[in-house]
Every structure is written in structure tokens, then in C-alpha cells.
């Protein structure tokens, strides 16, 4: 089972441009179409929508790609 996070948690992940930090704004526990792709989600393996601190860009990642940080 992947790491579990909650809405409001501040997290960090690695992107093509380097590390990015942001805040989780939504937790998905059912499959969801997002930006033209189907993301497979479940209660045991959710995906998270995260809003970047710097750009306000919204990204979606599994818990294994995220690390909780302090603001």
C-alpha cells in the first residue's frame, strides 16, 4: 500500500524541472480521467491533486511519489 496523505498536507515531488512543493487539494479513491488520461485509484492506492506553491499548477500523483514537508 502506498503512503497515505490528507487534503491540506504540504508535500514535495520530483518533476522534469526539479523538485516542486505544494498542497494537496483533493484525494481520489476511484478511477478518474485527468488531463486526457485515466488515472487508476482506489482506497488502498489513492492519487492526489496537488497545487504548486510557486505556479498554482495542479498536478496529480500517487502517494509513493510524494514526501510530506513542513511549511
Question: Would you give an account of this structure?
Answer:
This protein is an all-beta fold and 71 residues long. A hairpin with a 2-residue loop joins strand 1 and strand 2 (18-28). The protein has one domain (10-68). The chain contains no helices and seven strands.
List the helices and strands and how they pair.
Blueprint: E1 10-15, E2 18-28, E3 32-34, E4 37-39, E5 47-52, E6 58-62, E7 67-68
Antiparallel strand pairs: 1-2, 1-7, 2-5, 3-4, 5-6
Mean pLDDT: 92
Distance, first to last CA: 26 Å
Give the uncertain stretches in residue-range form.
none
Count of separate structural domains: 1
What is the CA-based Rg, rounded?
11 Å
Describe the global form: globular
Structural class computed from helices and strand pairing: mainly beta
Helix/strand order = EEEEEEE
- Strand order of the main beta sheet, please? 6-5-2-1-7
Largest sheet: 5 strands, antiparallel
Q: How many DSSP-defined strands?
A: 7
Share of helix among residues?
Answer: under 10%
Oligomer: single chain
Strand % is: over 45%
Tally the helices: what do you get? 0
How would you describe this structure in keywords?
51% strand; 5-stranded antiparallel beta sheet; two-stranded antiparallel ribbon; 7 strands; globular; single chain; mainly beta; 71 residues
In short:
With 71 residues, the protein is mostly beta strands.
